[in-house]
Specification:
mainly alpha, 3 domains
């Protein structure tokens, strides 16, 4: 009882201190002088007026169910209320916003692709799962082939069959490996070695046996998926938020490794590599993205072999990847220059080669310091993908604009744009929040 009473007394003593600190902060920052008081009052009034107006327009007077835009006006008039938001048009076009003109009977393929990506990447955030670097690399280099065929469908060549089979085998292995790690704390290779009685063999023999099992699994999956065929969906039907995430996702996945490669090339001691890397970076950084997109759709075909044709979507993705890799290269170069020279000398003193020094000593430290800039580049890339609407791709922004051209909803501009702004805010804020989490977790300067 005495302990409880003392805790209650302590809580009662702490509460006034917190109130005093809040009041002192308000007094020092908002009400310290007479002009700060005036600006604070004006700012509070503006915020109140904006929030009140948006609340009345977007919720109080809003219409959620209507046949067309004229019906929204009639409903507001019958209520005797000022005109409000006509969200009925947004809900009617929601499928178009998400998937564009993708065939409605094939939307399950996009949903399945998103589910597979979530399953593939989930082990990266599970603490007990090991081998996260391999999982991350498999997502970057194998998932695009599986998702690409799932989204596009149609006939596929031998190379595509090989990559799809490798992606299926890797995904299955990652899922099994994650479950084993969560349940037993062991890894999939360790469990296979123990179950097959290979523990007495040398590491080389164990590795060869595991590779043989992987080859057998690959052969079985290749035979199984060789008869798997999904209907072809032309890229011109891709659109909406789905297309925006495809372009930005591939750009983000390529930007960091491409930027690291260009940054190391720019710092190389080989003159040819250094000059080529520097020239490539400066050329792409000297022109806006829209120029690069126009050049990609008009000039790329001139440099391709005769008979080799790339569709406009592939050309745009290549342009976005190269453009953002060049910007990422400067971010990586700045991070590498922030590492003290003693780290390089210590790595050389330990007998590490160039790639070992970069992979185990320098780059892990540099990437921690570059997290805010890297994520900032990713956020900019996500927003810059809206420029593809200028060259005829029906991305998320294009679909938001298309609502106003639909006859039943002609003139509906503000509601779709407001909805798009909310979606982009959620995506960008989530990326920013996660980068902050990484800074704190990795200690890359957040608490310095």
């Amino acid at each position: 009882m005495t302990a409880i009473a003392s805790d209650q007394d302590t809580g009662q003593k702490k509460a006034p201190k917190i109130q005093i600190s809040v009041l002192s902060w308000l007094r020092e920052n908002l009400f310290s002088t007479w002009y700060n008081v005036v600006f604070t009052v004006i700012g509070i009034y503006i915020v109140y007026a904006v929030i009140t107006a948006l609340w009345d327009w977007g919720f109080v007077n809003a219409v959620w169910e209507a046949k067309d835009r004229r019906d929204c006006f009639n409903i507001n008039k019958a209520r005797g209320q000022p005109p409000g938001a006509c969200w009925a048009g947004v809900t009617t076009w929601m499928t178009n916003f998400m998937y564009g003109r993708y065939p409605r009977t094939e939307l399950w393929r996009i949903d399945l692709g998103g589910i597979l990506l979530a399953i593939w990447m989930a082990p990266i955030w599970l603490p007990r799962v090991k081998g996260k670097i391999i999982i991350a690399f498999s997502v970057v280099f194998l998932y695009p082939f599986l998702a690409g065929y799932l989204f596009s469908g149609g006939e596929r060549g031998v190379f595509m069959q090989v990559m799809v089979s490798a992606a299926i085998v890797m995904l299955t292995a990652i899922v099994v490996h994650s479950l084993i790690s969560l349940i037993t704390g062991r890894t999939l290779p360790a469990l296979l070695v123990s179950a097959l009685g290979l523990a007495a063999l040398s590491e080389k023999m164990q590795r060869n046996a595991l590779l043989a099992l992987a080859a057998l699994a690959f052969a079985l999956v290749f035979w199984w998926q060789s008869g798997w065929l999904v209907p072809e969906v032309n890229w011109v039907n891709w659109g909406g938020l789905f297309l925006t995430l495809v372009i930005s996702g591939i750009g983000i996945a390529f930007a960091l490794p491409g930027g690291i490669t260009l940054a190391l090339g720019r710092r190389s001691k080989l003159p040819v590599v250094r000059v080529l890397s520097t020239g490539f970076i400066e050329i792409f950084r000297s022109v806006p993205l829209i120029t690069v997109l126009f050049m990609a759709t008009t000039m790329f075909p001139l440099f391709l072999p005769e008979g080799f044709i790339l569709n406009k979507l592939v050309q745009v993705i290549v342009a976005v990847c190269l453009f953002n890799a060049c910007y990422m290269a400067e971010t990586v170069r700045a991070g590498l220059q922030a590492i003290p020279k003693g780290q390089y000398e210590a790595a050389h003193a330990m007998g590490l080669g160039y790639w070992q020094m970069m992979g185990f000593v320098v780059m892990p430290q540099a990437l921690k310091y570059m997290i805010p800039n890297i994520v900032g580049s990713f956020i900019g890339l996500l927003k810059d993908t809206t420029l593809v609407s200028i060259i005829g791709l029906f991305d998320f922004l294009s679909m938001l604009r298309a609502v106003s051209q639909d006859v039943p909803w002609r003139g509906l501009h503000y509601e779709p744009i407001m909805f798009g702004a909310v979606v982009f805010f959620i995506l960008c804020a989530s990326m920013s929040k996660y980068s902050r989490h990484l800074e704190i977790k990795l200690g890359g300067g957040a608490n310095r």
